[in-house]
């Protein structure tokens, strides 16, 4: 096929992948909605019945009368509800795999159309980095059973692909002179993969905070929705976030803070020039270094560690989007 044909195929595959990821997101959203409804539908009639008895008798409920209410709500997820939740989760994961196949095809054909690696501008890096998010998620789903991240992951991928297609699209073409180097492959691929891991780790940390709060409410006598009960224990999620970020940090260190300056010396004649992109890449590294250091030396676990991980994720997102689109610098060639 000709480069023009490859470009046309890529321009069809990327929007198709976006639609499939959107359907996966809807399926995972239904999973969470069904999980919440599985508690609400059965908890409300029990409370309503108790209220009716109290009103009719004019008496005050005793602790013995109140005791069964919370466990009944907490255990309200029946076999039928469980089957619906499992079905929504499986459909969402299957659609994510389908979207990934189309997404991968779109990235590959984009590279064939351009005759080079497909991350030479902001559009290409966006579709490649979002593919890295999908790859990291699907790998860790198999290894650590992270299906519960499906909603967050598909939302992020759909949002990035939508932004890329609607606002960042650039026709396939040759690279600017500064990008003609094998360091392009090393530097940008490492940044994309570690960025995907930062995203997965950030999403786990967000859900950790939600789960930990729900567990504290249960200890105080409250209830937990079926969707949250299906999440791993908060402590296990904290450990999963650490594993993902511990994988990403050395990759970011080598790809961005080692390979990047070496490439900069070849392209611009200096290793470091405090370009905005360089500064925010360093800030991202410092935040994640603080996260790992705090866990290793100060014994930080749980909420404090999760907060640092989430801050690091937002710093990375600003480095990825804000610096490229809002700040002028030597890396501006990677913009629109």
TrEMBL record:
Main location: membrane
Keywords in alphabetical order: Cytochrome c-type biogenesis, Membrane, Transmembrane, Transmembrane helix
Cytochrome c assembly protein domain mapped to chain residues: 119-331
Keyword Protease: no
Membrane topology: Multi-pass membrane protein
Family matches, as Pfam families: Cytochrom_C_asm
Regions that span the bilayer: 12-34, 91-113, 125-141, 148-170, 182-210, 244-264, 279-298, 305-327
Subcellular location: Membrane
Keyword Transmembrane helix: yes
Protein name per its UniProtKB record: Cytochrome c-type biogenesis protein CcsB
């Amino acid at each position: 096929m000709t480069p023009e044909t490859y470009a046309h195929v890529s321009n069809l595959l990327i929007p198709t992948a976006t639609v499939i990821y959107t359907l996966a997101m809807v399926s995972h959203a239904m999973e969470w909605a069904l999980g919440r409804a599985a508690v609400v539908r059965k908890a409300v009639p029990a409370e309503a019945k108790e209220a009716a008895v109290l009103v009719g008798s004019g008496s005050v409920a005793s602790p013995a009368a109140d005791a069964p209410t919370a466990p009944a709500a907490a255990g309200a997820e029946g076999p039928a509800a469980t089957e619906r939740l499992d079905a929504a989760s499986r459909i969402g994961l299957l659609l994510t795999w389908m979207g990934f196949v189309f997404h991968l095809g779109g990235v590959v054909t984009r590279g064939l159309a351009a005759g080079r690696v497909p991350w030479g501008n902001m559009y290409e890096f966006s579709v490649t980095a979002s593919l890295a998010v999908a790859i990291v998620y699907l790998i860790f789903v198999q290894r650590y059973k992270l299906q519960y991240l499906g909603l967050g992951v598909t939302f992020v991928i759909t949002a990035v692909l939508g932004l890329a297609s609607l606002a960042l699209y650039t026709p396939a073409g040759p690279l600017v002179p500064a990008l003609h180097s094998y360091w392009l492959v090393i530097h940008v691929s490492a940044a994309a993969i570690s960025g995907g891991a930062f995203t997965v780790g950030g999403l786990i940390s967000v859900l950790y905070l939600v789960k930990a709060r729900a567990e504290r409410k249960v200890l105080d006598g409250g209830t937990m929705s079926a969707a949250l009960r299906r999440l791993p224990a908060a402590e296990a999620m904290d450990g999963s976030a650490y594993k993902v970020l511990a994988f990403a940090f050395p990759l970011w260190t080598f790809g961005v803070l080692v390979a990047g300056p070496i490439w900069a010396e070849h392209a611009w004649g200096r290793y470091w020039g405090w370009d905005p992109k360089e500064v925010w890449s360093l800030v991202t590294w410092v935040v994640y270094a603080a996260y790992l250091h705090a866990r290793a030396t100060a014994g930080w676990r749980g909420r404090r560690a999760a907060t640092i991980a989430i801050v690091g994720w937002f710093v990375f997102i600003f480095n990825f989007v804000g610096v490229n689109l809002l700040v002028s610098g030597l890396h501006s060639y990677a913009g629109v």
